[in-house]
Design a protein that fits this description.
Elements: E1 2-6, E2 12-16, H1 55-66
Antiparallel strand pairs: 1-2
Domain Tail specific protease: 1-39
Pfam families: Peptidase_S41
InterPro entries: ClpP/crotonase-like_dom_sf, Tail-specific_protease
């Protein structure tokens, strides 16, 4: 987690103020986490902000409704 501290000249100083750790003690910094289920994004007809064509969103909603 980074915070920006404002400076008197109008600039800012970005500082790391916290880190996220896994239960194992490892950090996910600059690595990220791997998904449990990978759903490939459709490239042929994908449109930004079109939930009817977003197969990743559709799959996630199906999982949520099933649980």
């Amino acid at each position: 987690v980074q915070s920006i501290m404002p400076l008197s000249n109008g600039g800012g100083l970005r500082l790391t103020t916290a880190k996220y750790y896994l239960p194992s003690g490892e950090t996910i910094e600059e690595i990220g986490v791997q998904p449990d289920i990978k759903v490939e994004q459709q490239k042929d007809n994908f449109k930004i902000n079109d939930p009817t064509n977003d197969n990743q969103l559709i799959y996630a909603l199906k999982l949520l409704k099933a649980s």
